[in-house]
Amino acid sequence: MNTGFDLHLTEDVLETYVLGQLSPPDCISAEEHLLICPDCMNRLDQCEAYIQIMKIATSIVANHSSRLPPRAPAPQVGAIAAIR
C-alpha cells in the first residue's frame, strides 16, 4: 500500500478500506492519509456510496429473482447444442 502522505490512496485501497478488509497497519496508514487529504476523503465518500448502492441492488435482485418465471433459453443456445 502507498504509505506516503504525498501519494493518493488507490481505488483498491479505498474499496478494501470501506469493506473493512484492510490490514491493521494499512488501515492506520489510510486513515492518517484521509485526515489530511480532502481529495481522498471525497473519493472515499463516493466509494462508500457506490458499495452501498451495489449491496442494495444485490439484495433486490436476490429477493426478486426467486419470483421471476424461468427464462426460456435463447434460440442460439439450441443451435450451438445441435452443432456439438
Overall geometry = elongated
Strand content: under 5%
Mean pLDDT: 83
Structural class: mainly alpha
The biggest sheet amounts to: none
The N- to C-terminal Cα distance equals 48 Å
Count of discrete structural domains: 1
The ordered H/E elements are HHHH
Rounded to an integer in angstroms, the radius of gyration calculated over CA atoms is 21 Å
What share of the residues lie within helices?
Answer: 55-70%
Identify low-pLDDT runs: none
The total count of helices amounts to 4
Count of extended strands: 0
State the main characteristics.
single chain; 84 residues; mainly alpha; elongated
Overview of the structural elements:
The protein has about 80 residues and is an all-alpha fold. It has helices at about 10-20, 25-35, 40-65, 75-84. It has one domain (about 1-70).
Give a short overview:
By secondary structure, the protein is an all-alpha fold. It is 69% helix and 0% strand. Helix 1 (11-18) crosses helix 3 (38-65).
What is the fold's blueprint, element by element?
Elements: H1 11-18, H2 24-36, H3 38-65, H4 75-83
